[in-house]
């Protein structure tokens, strides 16, 4: 197999004092290939965003301790110094953040912010950079890009601002895009537009995409592969169709079962939403062994020990002592030839 | 009419009631203070008889009841006449016009020193938060914050004028003046140095602390992370993204501090015998020169209000989200 675009091994992010560290991300490994979308799913606080920020070391000022290996196109980037890392950010790995309302500098025009991003990596004159900025706005489908260049962010709506944020992320022509809940702050119709835009741009530019979200609907629509995180660890990884058809980890099962179903018949008896009992444990009070055991109906004594990730096939792995087998999955008939 | 002109006009119209209230309050305060101009003159001469004092009061028209005098003063004001200072034997307007440039220069230089040094030190402090440089700057600014202006002035005089003999301690220029443009400018700068420094000291500390806290706040905001994700340098982030946004609250503070700066300049002008408005006011209080004092109050409040207007306009320039509407 060729070298993956991004290859992360045993990533660990700690906060707080070294004596009693809060482990936000623990022993996390992931790979993304060019042109592929990996979705990272989990509840808030499970370490998704910290993972995204840790990859490009943007956890500034929080005194996080990051260890593990991050290889970009086969080259180790976790050991680069700050100056070299700046050459990676924007140029090779672009980032899109959650809240477009606060992600843009309010006192700089959109054009200036784009030009700054362009000139950070390409030696272009201001005029050339401005022309490219206009192209970028066109690319993210902002109407009348030439006029909008000199506007300030407060003149853009939420969806338009997110388009600008995407344009910023594309300014350095990165080959990997990390989108941290890019649609959470937007309303549903805009969400669909932005996701569609991201998918189109990804195809156009052949980028790898890491899409961080807690919205399984978004995952189903856009992802190739899915990684489920719980309390800082990867609990399951599967291609997207497999994950929805046959989730292995009890937590993934719970997540999928907790999705509200569309009720076609309004007069029918309302079906109560399934939920996962209990709460996500706090980072400071992580139990020994499997962090999900306390909420898990399949838990046993074995669960007091941290389960290893078990590879089921090349693309599927699960970290559970009692994973669901495809065969005992309630929704599935015994093993179809191909899912 | 363009929105800007309309806005300015409305703001200037607000000056009138403000001025009236200021004049009324200061007039009442001054009338409540014991003694009048004649008492002061009698005390100075040392041999005034009661008859002579009565004659002086008659001459200066001080016998009428307070409200009549006040009404007369207002009437003069309405004719743009600030009255006559019998003590200085000059029109009040003329006296003030003589002194305003000295005070304005002093204030301006002090504000510029305070802003430039304060913002730079505050920015450095925020950038190196928690390191020794930050500790040193923060400690110094706390000391500066807690030190009275007059004491700083005296200390500067002791060190730089008396011990080191580097800089003059009083006045605005060498008596008789210096020939040539550059030598004379240098001469004035030398005289300006100590008063401007002592006046700026307190404000410098405020700027350091405000800049530091405002920048630290901005450093935590999302758009700074966006800027970092672009891969631009830390210096660009600090100047273009953080400092520019942190400046907004500083501009507000500057506007609010202008009044107190005027007050501070009175102290500094007294310590350094700076021939400005503050010294004039200080003397006028001791001489019970009500006309002059009222004139100074009016003039300085106008100055402060005008400068606040300027600050507001500057604010609209700095922050595109603020639009001037009339």
UniProtKB/TrEMBL annotation, chain A:
Any one Pfam family match given in the protein's UniProt record, by short name: oligo_HPY
UniProt catalytic activity: a dipeptide(out) + ATP + H2O = a dipeptide(in) + ADP + phosphate + H(+)
NCBIfam families xref list: oligo_HPY
Chief subcellular location: membrane
Stretch forming the signal peptide: none
Superkingdom in the source lineage: Bacteria
Keywords on record: ATP-binding, Cell membrane, Membrane, Nucleotide-binding, Transport
CDD domains (alphabetical): ABC_NikE_OppD_transporters (cd03257)
Annotated membrane topology: Peripheral membrane protein
Keyword Cell membrane applies: yes
Family the UniProt entry places it in: Belongs to the ABC transporter superfamily.
Protein name: ABC-type dipeptide transporter
Coiled coil region boundaries: none
Residue ranges of every copy of the ABC transporter domain listed in the record: 8-256
GO molecular function: ATP binding
Subcellular location: Cell inner membrane
UniProt-listed Enzyme Commission number(s): 7.4.2.9
TrEMBL record, chain B:
InterPro entries given in the database record: BPD_transp_1_N, MetI-like, MetI-like_sf
Keyword Transmembrane attributed: yes
Primary location class: membrane
Transmembrane segments: 12-30, 104-124, 136-162, 189-208, 247-272, 292-318
Residue span, ABC transmembrane type-1 domain: 100-315
Keywords, sorted A to Z: Cell membrane, Membrane, Transmembrane, Transmembrane helix, Transport
Localization (cell): Cell membrane
Membrane topology value: Multi-pass membrane protein
Top-rank taxon, per record: Bacteria
Pfam family, one: BPD_transp_1_N
PANTHER family the record matches: ABC TRANSPORTER PERMEASE PROTEIN, DIPEPTIDE TRANSPORT SYSTEM PERMEASE PROTEIN DPPB-RELATED
Family: Belongs to the binding-protein-dependent transport system permease family.
Protein known as: ABC transporter permease
The species this protein was found in: Pseudomonas typographi
Taxonomy of the source species: Bacteria, Pseudomonadati, Pseudomonadota, Gammaproteobacteria, Pseudomonadales
């Amino acid at each position: 197999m060729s070298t993956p675009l991004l290859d992360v091994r045993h990533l660990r992010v700690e906060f707080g004092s070294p004596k009693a560290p809060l482990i936000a991300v623990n022993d996390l490994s992931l790979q993304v290939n060019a042109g592929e979308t990996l979705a990272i799913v989990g509840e808030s606080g499970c370490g998704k965003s910290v993972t995204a920020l840790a990859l490009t070391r943007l956890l500034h000022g929080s005194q996080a301790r990051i260890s593990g290996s991050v290889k970009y196109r086969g080259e180790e980037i976790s050991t680069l110094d700050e100056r070299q890392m700046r050459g990676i950010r924007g140029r090779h790995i672009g980032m899109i953040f959650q809240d477009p309302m606060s992600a843009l500098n309010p006192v700089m025009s959109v054009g200036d912010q784009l030009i700054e991003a362009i000139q950070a990596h390409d030696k272009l004159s201001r005029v050339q950079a401005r022309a490219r900025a206009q192209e970028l706005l066109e690319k993210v489908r902002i109407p009348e890009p030439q006029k909008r260049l000199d506007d300030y962010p407060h003149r853009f709506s939420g969806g338009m601002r997110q388009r600008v944020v995407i344009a910023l992320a594309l300014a350095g022509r990165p080959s990997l895009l990390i989108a941290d809940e890019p649609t959470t702050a937007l309303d549903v119709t805009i969400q669909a537009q932005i996701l569609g835009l991201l998918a189109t741009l990804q195809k156009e530019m052949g980028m790898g995409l890491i899409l961080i979200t807690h919205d399984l609907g978004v995952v189903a629509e856009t992802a190739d592969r899915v990684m489920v995180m719980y309390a800082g660890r990867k609990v399951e990884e599967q291609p997207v169709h497999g994950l929805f058809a046959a989730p292995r980890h009890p937590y993934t099962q719970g997540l999928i079962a907790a999705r509200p179903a569309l009720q076609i018949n309004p007069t029918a008896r309302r079906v109560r939403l399934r939920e996962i009992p209990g709460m996500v444990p706090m980072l400071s009070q992580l139990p020994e062994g499997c962090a999900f055991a306390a909420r898990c109906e399949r838990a046993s004594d074995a669960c007091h020990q941290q389960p290893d990730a078990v590879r089921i096939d090349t693309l599927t792995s699960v970290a559970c002592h009692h994973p669901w087998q495809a065969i005992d999955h309630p929704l599935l008939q015994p093993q179809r030839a191909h899912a | 009419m363009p929105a800007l002109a309309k806005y300015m006009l409305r703001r200037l119209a607000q000056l009138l009631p403000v001025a009236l209230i200021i004049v009324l309050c200061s007039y009442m305060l001054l009338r409540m203070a014991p003694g009048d101009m004649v008492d002061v003159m009698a005390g100075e001469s040392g041999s005034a008889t009661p008859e002579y004092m009565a004659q002086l009061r008659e001459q200066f028209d001080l016998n009428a009841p307070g409200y009549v005098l006040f009404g007369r003063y207002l009437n003069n004001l309405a004719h743009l006449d600030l009255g006559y200072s019998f003590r200085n034997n000059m029109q009040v307007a003329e006296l003030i016009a003589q002194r305003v440039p000295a005070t304005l220069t002093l204030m301006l230089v002090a504000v510029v020193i305070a802003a430039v040094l304060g913002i730079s030190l505050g920015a450095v402090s925020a950038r190196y938060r928690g390191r020794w440089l930050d500790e040193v700057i923060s400690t110094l600014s706390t000391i500066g914050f807690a030190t009275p202006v007059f004491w700083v002035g005296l200390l500067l005089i002791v060190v730089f004028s008396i011990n080191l003999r580097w800089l003059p301690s009083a006045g605005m220029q060498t008596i008789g003046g210096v020939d040539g443009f550059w030598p004379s400018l240098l001469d004035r700068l030398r005289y300006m140095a100590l008063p401007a420094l002592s006046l700026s000291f307190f404000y410098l500390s405020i700027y350091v602390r405000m800049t530091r806290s405002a920048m630290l706040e901005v450093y935590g905001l999302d758009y700074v992370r966006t800027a970092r994700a672009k891969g631009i340098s830390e210096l660009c982030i600090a100047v273009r993204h953080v400092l520019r946004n942190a400046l907004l609250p500083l501009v507000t503070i500057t506007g609010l501090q202008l009044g107190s700066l005027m007050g501070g300049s009175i102290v500094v002008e007294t310590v350094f015998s700076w021939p400005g408005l503050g010294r004039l006011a200080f003397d006028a209080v001791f001489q019970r020169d009500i006309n002059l004092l009222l004139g100074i109050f009016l003039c300085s409040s106008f100055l402060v209000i005008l400068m606040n207007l300027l600050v507001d306009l500057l604010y609209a320039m700095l922050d595109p989200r603020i639009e001037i509407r009339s």
